Amino acid sequence: MRLALFFVALATSIAAEVGQESIEYWNRVGRKWLDAKLESDVGTILAAQQTPPKNVILFIGDGMGIATITAARIARNQNSGQADVNQPFFFETFPFSGLSKTASFDTHTTDSAASAVAMMCGRKVEQNTLGRLPGHGNKCEHGEKAKIRDGIADLAIDKGIDVGFATTAAITDATPAALYAKDVHRRMEFDSAPGMNTSNCEDIATQILSHPADKFKVLLGGGHAQFLPDSVGGNRTDNRSIEEEWAHLRPMQLAQSRVLLTGTEDFVHHTPEEDQQLLGIFAPLHFPYRVDENLRNSSSVPRLSEMAVKAVQVMEKQTDSRGYFLMIEGANIDKAQHKNRFHLATEELSEFDRAIEQVSNLVGDDTLILVTADHAHALTIPGYLNKSRSIFERDGNVSSIFFATGPGYGDGNRTLYTAEESMDPHFAQPASFFFNDARHGGEDVGIWAKGPFAWLFTGTLENTQIAYNIKYLMCLDDKEKSVCDLRKRMTEKQQNEDAERIMGATTVSPQSQSFHILNTSLPIRGTMIALLVITCVLALLVAALLVLLLRSTFRGTVKPSESSS
Ligand SMILES: *[C@@H]1O[C@H](CO)[C@@H](O)[C@H](O)[C@H]1NC(C)=O
Ligand SMILES: *[C@@H]1O[C@H](CO)[C@@H](O)[C@H](O)[C@H]1NC(C)=O
Ligand SMILES: *[C@@H]1O[C@H](CO)[C@@H](O)[C@H](O)[C@H]1NC(C)=O
Ligand SMILES: *[C@@H]1O[C@H](CO)[C@@H](O)[C@H](O)[C@H]1NC(C)=O
Ligand SMILES: *[C@@H]1O[C@H](CO)[C@@H](O)[C@H](O)[C@H]1NC(C)=O
Ligand SMILES: *[C@@H]1O[C@H](CO)[C@@H](O)[C@H](O)[C@H]1NC(C)=O
Ligand SMILES: *[C@@H]1O[C@H](CO)[C@@H](O)[C@H](O)[C@H]1NC(C)=O
Ligand SMILES: *[C@@H]1O[C@H](CO)[C@@H](O)[C@H](O)[C@H]1NC(C)=O
Ligand SMILES: [Zn+2]
């Protein structure tokens, strides 16, 4: 018994040593969660039946919390005259959904950098940091040992799986940069970023020239200013054009060409060809809001849906493809809410949804599609406005779309706005505390999934689990659990069973054979586990009895020191 207690204590102390700054901690969380899923009644059946996805597309609606989705859904349906204001967004019709916990390593409510790293690398990091292990401060003086190199992108590139992204933010913004940037503060977007100690730091823009981003197949978004020197209107003071440098990098082994698109014209005229690497930058910084594009009747940038479709087309064109991982971000859903401007957010969310629908229609059933948010906004929908009125209006003095913080606070008495004012596309909904930029919300966000193994993204999970599951399904991490091991074990099992059947010389049709295996494997497995457990319990009982017997036999010879330790 003492020995057992000792081992328990030892195990706990080892467990305590592995802190949350370590990937081992999050891998253990991931493994445990996944095992429970795979060993559930439904999990055992589905894992045996399905082929793992070849491709994974992760859609991130930045700041797309549950209240944001509800309010935007109502607004969109009211705008289009729908009698049923709960008509769902396309992604809300996915067969599986769950909840994801978003807290960062050091804050209850996360920023976009820490949460994107969690979803793309499978570990929690400090607020505002990218590709940097926790506990390394904000200086870039730790070299390789502070850098996170086990993210989805790094591992996928090593396995020959293609990686890409499209976003309506700058390519150097936190969410896309979480895929590739190492050891930087999220504001270190270019060489002379203000307020940053840049010594020894490689700014985010230049990091598209090094591993793993130099091997990405698709990079689409905004941010010319971070890539171009001040002499041509950019922000850089090192006189470098990172865009040109990217175009002149040696082509990758498989990629015959690097294609640089620097404007919407280029985008429209580009046709995806085999083995291209595509860098497209379409705005000085972030994309303009869809509402403003519509008001101006302009197409100064491609739509998110157009970029998403282009990204998939390029990916599907790759020869000898071993699959791809694609991240598509609706960034302006967040930026609009930072200003409490919910008409803008509604339109951005609708465009995000359009991108999901068009991509869904394009890909085959070998593709897993995930839709989630990196964090919520501190938004709520207080009662009890009559359904016949616009969700943007107020019920008495209560605004139906209400932020905790932000510029919508105004002069403090924003309760007095009229229904007409609230229908201005740039109207800012009220907030209870003034901030130039509204603060994010810390509650769980939704995750919606469809395609092979989509059921793995149900229940409540850590945002790190998203990366863990993707690594598992694409067999990215050789040191961790992977679906490839599961397939191997299942094939071996099947071969053994087939061999046994042949030995038994029974004649069964292949079809009924496979039904037979699936329909009976569960009870058989259950019985075997039960037998095993019973055997173990019996063995333990016998051992305990033996120990008790020996103890009572030799009671007189036990040294006193032993019982006082
Ligand atoms: C910037 O960081 C370097 C080392 O990383 C340090 O030597 C230097 O003093 C810092 N400069 C400022 C202004 O903090
Ligand atoms: C960088 O350039 C953009 C676009 O020209 C500008 O809006 C922004 O203020 C600049 N950023 C910084 C930090 O100087
Ligand atoms: C910047 O680079 C260009 C070409 O790369 C060169 O012609 C020019 O002299 C450089 N300007 C400065 C200020 O270094
Ligand atoms: C919007 O622009 C398109 C082409 O750019 C033009 O055909 C159309 O008439 C314009 N619509 C309005 C309302 O100005
Ligand atoms: C809601 O508005 C409709 C139409 O104006 C009205 O008939 C109905 O009585 C209202 N319901 C409530 C609960 O106020
Ligand atoms: C709304 O707020 C104003 C100013 O605080 C107050 O005078 C008024 O009675 C309130 N109206 C309602 C319906 O509560
Ligand atoms: C808000 O309150 C301030 C001071 O109480 C007042 O001067 C201002 O006119 C009010 N604003 C509106 C829109 O009523
Ligand atoms: C079990 O077998 C029946 C027919 O024998 C079949 O209809 C059913 O789909 C099988 N169940 C599974 C999970 O394959
Ligand atoms: Zn934000």
TrEMBL record:
Residue positions binding Zn(2+): D62, D334, H338, D374, H375, H440
Chain segments annotated as coiled-coil in the UniProt record: none
Pfam families: Alk_phosphatase
Free-text remark on how the cofactor is bound: Binds 1 Mg(2+) ion. Binds 2 Zn(2+) ions.
Entry keyword set: Magnesium, Membrane, Metal-binding, Phosphoprotein, Signal, Transmembrane, Transmembrane helix, Zinc
Active site as annotated: S112 (phosphoserine intermediate)
Domain of life of the organism encoding this protein: Eukaryota
Cofactor: Mg(2+); Zn(2+)
A GO molecular-function annotation: alkaline phosphatase activity
UniProt keyword Cell cycle present: no
Record-listed Mg(2+) binding positions: D62, D173, T175, E329
SUPFAM superfamilies registered for this protein in UniProt: Alkaline phosphatase-like (SSF53649)
Stretch forming the signal peptide: 1-16
Gene3D superfamilies, A to Z: Alkaline Phosphatase, subunit A
EC number assigned by the record: 3.1.3.1
Transmembrane parts of this sequence: 528-550
Record-linked SMART domains: alkPPc
First-tier enzyme category under EC: hydrolase
Family under the similarity heading: Belongs to the alkaline phosphatase family.
Protein name: alkaline phosphatase
Organism of origin: Pristionchus entomophagus
